Each structure stands twice: as C-alpha cells, then as structure tokens.
Amino acid sequence: MLSLKNIALTFNEDTPDEKKALQDIHLTLEKGDFVTVIGSNGAGKSTLMNVISGSLKPDIGTVAIDGRQVVHLPEYKRSSYIGRVFQDPMAGTAPSMTIEENLAMAYARNKKRRLRAGVSKKRRELFREFLQTLQLGLEDRLTAKVGLLSGGERQALSLLMATFTEPNILLLDEHTAALDPSRAELITNLTGEIVDKFNLTTLMVTHNMQQALDLGNRLIMMDKGQIIFDVSGDQKQELTIEKLLHEFQRIRGKMLDNDRAILG
Amino acid sequence: MFISLFGAVESGVIYAIMALGVYLSFRVLDFPDLTVDGSFVTGAAVGAISITNGVPPILATLLALLAGFLTGSITGILNTKGKINPLLSGILMMIALYSINLRILGRPTLSLIRESTLFKNLEPIWDATGIDQAINGFIGLMGVERFPDTWVVLIFMIIVTVLIKLLTDYFLKTEVGLALRATGDNERMIRSLSANTDTLTIAGLGISNGLVALSGALVAQYGGFADVNMGIGMIVIGLASVIIGEALFGTKNIARTTLAVIGGAIVYRIVVTLALRVDFLKTGDMKLITALLVIVALIAPKIITASKENRRRQRKKMALNKKTEEV
Ligand SMILES: Nc1ncnc2c1ncn2[C@@H]1O[C@H](COP(=O)(O)OP(=O)(O)OP(=O)(O)O)[C@@H](O)[C@H]1O
Ligand SMILES: [Mg+2]
Predict the structure, then answer these.
(1) What is the tally of structural domains in chain A?
(2) Residue with CA nearest ligand 1 atom 26
(3) Which of A17, A30, B217, B233 could form a disulfide with B47 if both were Cys (CB 3.0 to 4.6 A apart)?
C-alpha cells in the first residue's frame, strides 16, 4: 500500500546548520495498517509525513503508493491519494467558508473539479449524514462559517474531510495536540472509529504514549531521523509505557528526552 | 443636479465591473493586485484601437476582456512560477503595461468621437422603443426639469453588470470556484485537497483583470477616448468601491457582497461628483478625496462597533448597579 525505500533528507547541507532530518528510512505499510509514530522533538516525524505527502522532496529514496511511484508528483497531485490532518486546528479548514463548502472541497479531492455547483441538494444530504457520525450537532450548522467553530469542532471536521473520500493513505500529525484533554479524547476515539470503518491505511504521529499504545496495530519509534524501533501485532499489544521507555534506553543508551511524552 | 447625479450613477455602473474584478483579486484571492492600473488601460486601448480599425464594437470589447485576462495571468505566473511577491508582481506588470499600452494606442490619446461604439450602435434600436420618452415623462411628473440625453447607457450597463455579478456569484460556488476561494483563504489546506493553487491563482487573476479591462473598454467607449494615463489610481478607486460597499451594504454572503461592491462603485462616483460641486475643491483634489473616503470607510465601521459595544456594556453595568441597590 505504502512503501518508502532508502529515504534520506538533510536540511541546510554543508552549512553549520546542517540537520540530518531523515536517514535511511525503509517502511512498508500493508492495506489497513494503523501505525502510531512516537519519538522526541526533532526526531523527524513531521518531516517523514511531509515526504510522504509531497510537501517535501527527499534527497534520495522512493515513495510508492499502491505500487505507483509518486516521489516525482507534486503535492497537489499526490493528495488525491492522501488524506491529512494537521496539528493546528486552523490548518485543515477554510475559515471564511461554510461547513458544507469545506466538505464540498474535500469531496472533490479525488475527482476532477468542474464548473458545476459544489454543494448540490444530494451532496448536502450526504454531508449531513457524515456529520451526524461526529455527534457534535454540526449537521444542523451546514451554512455556518467554519471560523466560528471551536478548535475541537474544527479538528473533528478536518478529520472527516480527510477521511470520508476513503483515501489510500491517512496521515495524522499530532492532530489532537492542540486540544484540551476531553476534546483530545473525543478526537482520538473518532479517529479509531473512522479508521476502522473505512479500513484506512494510517500513520499517526503522537506524543501521547498511551494513545500510541491504545490505537493501531503497529508502533514505530523515531530518533535522530531514523526508525529505531518497530513492533506490531501481539508484541505491540503487550507493550507498556515502562517497556517502551526501557526499550529506548536499551537502544540509545540514554533516557528518552521528552517529558511531554511521559506526562501524556 | 439631477443630470450630474445621473452621470455619476451611469459611470458608477460601468466602473462597478472594474470593482468586481478588484474584489476577486483583493478579497477572494487575498492578492493585492496592482496590475489593475495597467490592465484597465489595456482594455481601453485594445477596445479603442480595434474599433478604429473597423472591428465591430462588441467584438472589440470582447478582445479587450481577453487582453485583460492575459495581463492578469502573467502577473499570476510571475507570482506562482517566478516566486515574486504579490505586490511586486503587480507593480512590475503595471509598469510594463504602461509601455505596452502606449504601443497598442500608437499615441497617448486616441479619440473615438467619430467611431461607432457599443452605446452609439444601441441608440437607434433604443429610440425606436420609445422607452426614453416614457421614463422622462414619468420623472417629469416628479418635478425633474432637465432630462438626460438617453437612458440606454444606464439601462444597458445595469443589465451587463448584473449579469456579470450573477455569473460571478455562480462561479464562486462551483467546485472550481470553491477551490479558488480556498486558495485565498487557506492555501495549504486546499493543496492538501488536490487543487493546483498555482493554476487557480493564475486563472483567478486572469478573470479579475479580464473584468477590469472590460470595464476599461466600456469607459473608453462611454467617454469617447482612450488615454494612456486613464488608469492611474484605478486600483485605489476599485478598493474604495469594495471597501465602501462592504461597509455600507454588508458581506453576509457572496451574492450580498458582490451587490455591495456594485453599490460601493456607484456611491463612490456620487460622493466624488458631489464633492467636486463644492467650490473650494478642484478636479485635481479627486485623488485626495478618494484616499480620505477609503480611510473613512475603513475606520468608521470599527468606531461604530466599538461605541455599540461600549453602550451595551454600559447598559449591563447600570442593570447590575440597580440590582445591587435593590438588594
Ligand atoms: N524546513 C526546515 N529547514 C531546516 N530544518 C528543518 C526544517 N524542517 C525541520 N527541520 C529540522 O529537522 C529536524 C526534524 O524536524 P521534524 O519537524 O520532522 O521533527 P518532529 O519529529 O516532527 O518534532 P516534533 O515532535 O517537535 O514535532 C528538526 O531538527 C528540525 O529543526
Ligand atoms: Mg512534528
């Protein structure tokens, strides 16, 4: 489904600011895999997401989706296969446009955009049905501007917009990090339900270790631009936060330098 | 008085098309596009030179629209492909167009007095309908003494401008139109929804300047000449129309906003006309008046909202005081 081979990316190469953000990344996801990604600040998690989505180009290496090479496709072309939710609730929606207009734009993701009405009667019904699954009452506010929604509501809408066209790959980059704990839990639960329902192939970055353990069938840990730990199946089910921290210490010979992760 | 106000409304409706173009770049795409000063003249020049070379006025006007589309697209290409900042892309294009417009015209001013124009062609058909007499008879009853020469320009232009408004409203609600609006609202998001924002910016600026040039061609035919300097300050007039219109008539939704922009263009012309009737003010003061108008339209709504908020708080405080006194 998704296959990364030999990816490397260095920022500001040959300058004092040189930063090896990704090194020697090999990663293959099967259809329906739900992979949680953890790692300390600056480990390269967001960079990895950006390389998959096409907003960054790797120095070397290949990205294939469904066996199709996409590394040379610009971001906007690749995004017909990829759904994305960003950390910032403002990033995933257009604030001055209405809820139904935002959904209409997401609905057109994997189709050719034409000069026909974006929101038809039939589509409005469809949008309403999808919004009902969020259980936030947004289905009654179809013509409200998205800028009026709370961060949590916006993030739920972004999640719906990223998923309801059933993309080949779903990328979530700390998409609950900007929310208060109860909203974050709501979005986390929704994420689990939606990924299950559509059987989406998903990569989810999180600093919340418990979340990383609870969700998904596979977990990878990144550090200094590399994938240093990769567990799936039963082994992942048996994992605990203590074991994870211990594992990190064993591999890197030091403590995981991220208190956010432990608290989360 | 009636005649000069009539003239103000007439030209207001023609300039409203330019204001709609400015609305598309400035508000929808969030792109402060200074190409307008040049593309307005390009429209006038292409229209005028085509007409003097025997092209039927309607075709000449459409050619002007096309030329305007081209100028806007080039600004868009400079910005998206050349990665030049929006303001600078527009300024560069505006400067380049000054020379190009002079080339198109072949001289600084080209008169259309002896040529047929869209409006002159309509007059014989119009006169046959006798609508002028009917309207003049009616407003005569209301005490108007001097009548305008013809109503055809006003009525024809209202039809054209409203048609363009309705087309714009529809377009901005299509799948492409939604993506265009999102390009101005949240570019990163719409790119992650597989829209090519470069192409959308280029096309959007093309349409915007197409409308500006169309307005230029109509103004040239209305005024009877095209002049290489007729576009100076046009962007500010466009912005004035957009901002005054939004402040006076509201921006609840797209249809309302485009209507407000047209209204703003007309109000702007009326205010300028009235201001120039003041003895103390001269034609040369028009730019200053325009700048002051924009400043007022930008600041006044804020002051009004603030004072409303203040009064609301005052009321609440009084109510609270009363309650505590009673207790
Ligand atoms: N555009 C850029 N230019 C230069 N350096 C960059 C750029 N983007 C990221 N980096 C650097 O690359 C490294 C990896 O960054 P990245 O954003 O992928 O980390 P992350 O794992 O997502 O961290 P966090 O948990 O803080 O979000 C960091 O050291 C960062 O400073
Ligand atoms: Mg990150």
Answers:
(1) 1
(2) A41
(3) B217
Please, which residues have CB less than 5 A from ligand 2, an ion? A 46
Identify the residue among B28, B176, B194, B256 best suited for mutation to test binding to A, counting A beta carbons within 10 A and taking the highest: B194
Whether B54 is covered by a domain: the verdict is yes
Q: Which residues contact A168 (CB under 8 A, 6 or more apart)?
A: A1, A2, A65, A66, A81, A82, A201
Residue B29 lies in a domain: yes
A108 part of a folded domain: no
pTM of the predicted model, to two decimals?
Answer: 0.92
CATH for A259: 3.40.50.300
Please give the distance, rounded to the nearest whole angstrom, from the Cα atom of residue A13 to the centre of ligand 1.
Answer: 14
CB of B251 within 8 Å of any CB in chain A?
A: no
Q: How many domains does chain B have?
A: 1
For residue B214, give the amino acid letter: L
C-alpha to C-alpha distances, B224 to A118, B45, B48, nearest whole angstrom:
42, 12, 9
Q: Which domain holds residue A230?
A: 2-89+166-263
Tens place of pLDDT per residue across chain B (327 aa): 788 999 999 999 999 999 999 999 999 999 999 999 999 999 999 999 999 999 999 999 999 999 999 999 999 999 999 999 999 999 999 999 999 999 999 999 999 999 999 999 999 999 888 888 888 888 888 888 888 888 999 999 999 999 999 999 999 999 999 999 999 999 999 999 999 999 999 999 999 999 999 999 999 999 999 999 999 999 999 999 999 999 999 999 999 999 999 999 999 999 999 988 888 888 888 888 889 988 998 898 899 999 999 999 999 999 998 888 877
Cβ–Cβ of B179/A116 closer than 8 Å? Answer: no
Taking CA A46 as the corner, what is the angle to CA A40 and CA A47, rounded to the nearest 5 degrees? Answer: 110
With respect to residue A39, please indicate whether it lies within any of the assigned structural domains: yes
Residue A48 inside a domain? The answer is yes
- Report yes or no on B241 lying in a domain: no
- Nearest chain A Cα to B194, which residue? A76
Range of the domain at B59: 2-230
Q: How far is the CA of A177 from the centre of ligand 2 (A)?
A: 10
* For ligand 1, atom 17: residue with the closest CA: A46
User: Pick from B247, B277, B268, B245: which is nearest to B258 by CA?
Assistant: B245
